[in-house]
Amino acid sequence: MPGDFVDLHSFLVKVMDHAVMAVTPCTIGMVPHEALREITETHPHLTRLLAVNIVVDAAIHRQWLVSMGRRSALEHTAHLLCELLLRLRAVGLTTDDSFQLPLTQAELGDTLGLSTVHVNRVIQELRKEELITWHGDTVVIKDWPRLQGIAEFDPTFLSLKAEPR
Amino acid sequence: MPGDFVDLHSFLVKVMDHAVMAVTPCTIGMVPHEALREITETHPHLTRLLAVNIVVDAAIHRQWLVSMGRRSALEHTAHLLCELLLRLRAVGLTTDDSFQLPLTQAELGDTLGLSTVHVNRVIQELRKEELITWHGDTVVIKDWPRLQGIAEFDPTFLSLKAEPR
DNA sequence: CGATGGATTGAGGTAGGTCAAATGGCGTGG
DNA sequence: CCACGCCATTTGACCTACCTCAATCCATCG
Questions:
Q1: In this structure, which topology does domain A9-21+32-158 adopt according to CATH?
Q2: Which residue among A93, B55, B59, B165 has its CA within the 20 to 30 Å range from the CA of B83?
Q3: DSSP character at residue A129
Q4: A–B CB contacts, 8 A cutoff, strictly below
Q5: Min Cα separation B21/chain A (Å)
Q6: What is the topology classification, in CATH, of domain B9-158?
Q7: Residue pLDDT, tens place only, A21-76
Q8: Mean pLDDT, residues B64-68
């Protein structure tokens, strides 16, 4: 997600159990561990904000856990679309209720843990129900309340409002 | 898990999106947010260790995500058993390859996202394959290498070795 | 001894998977 | 401007892991 601080983990745990990759070409900024260490030594408030970042990531992970474990493919997909809309909106990358989703259905399947075939049927269902539109890279959320309802999407977990200092 | 620092999240994000509960009676210690704030102001190293705690939790969440999304019920269950053995061993609560698991099959199903019936069949399979024993609350891992193999369990994510300062 | 809660078993149902083929859009070379 | 090839999307048929429902079994305990 543009603007995200990716993989703060590696600063804290030196043996990684995972990798990170970009789905599209993108520009990245590198922050040396030394700089982070410096921040943790001298800027407690900034340090706490970095920790908030990690905590929110974990909250997102937990939502995904719910999606994988208890939501149907349709609900799971709807949930992801809701999450994407709000997170992209938070960084100014939406126009109204639409955003760019530079993924193939196969790639979407990879992220959702679904087969390409089933992703396709889910998307068709979402379209048939007039919940979304998806042409090329552009997704339009046509019926946010109902999509949110299907996904049982509660945006609390994203902590998009600023936290009190 | 005895000894764990539970829910550091609430210190950093004031609106919780989840609850925390104990599965068994247990003794808990409360750490006032004020004390945590004090630590973050004055003890950078300790602060980083608290952050490591959060990061490891997130790593565990990610493994669960893999389990829910890509592992079969058998593999998922095996993975949980592997995780429990190592985490309990880390706090001295195992004897050899056995530990106490004070859960009913229904509760285990709740945690794994499986029905009671299917949990039962999975457990029977694990027993038939001589991988584990489970009488009352006592689980014995009878064939760790094979269990680990089935689960594709790689303990790296638990970060059980001390991190360099 | 009956009641209770957990474990087990059986039968049938369903969401989503796999395999395989068809369709369609689009960029490239001729 | 066309034909071709490459992908992504779509469709159909069949399969399977896991679910639900409903008994039944079994141990424990008052």
A1: Arc Repressor Mutant, subunit A (1.10.10)
A2: B165
A3: T
A4: 103
A5: 15
A6: Arc Repressor Mutant, subunit A (1.10.10)
A7: 888 888 999 999 999 999 999 999 999 999 999 999 999 999 999 999 999 999 99
A8: 94
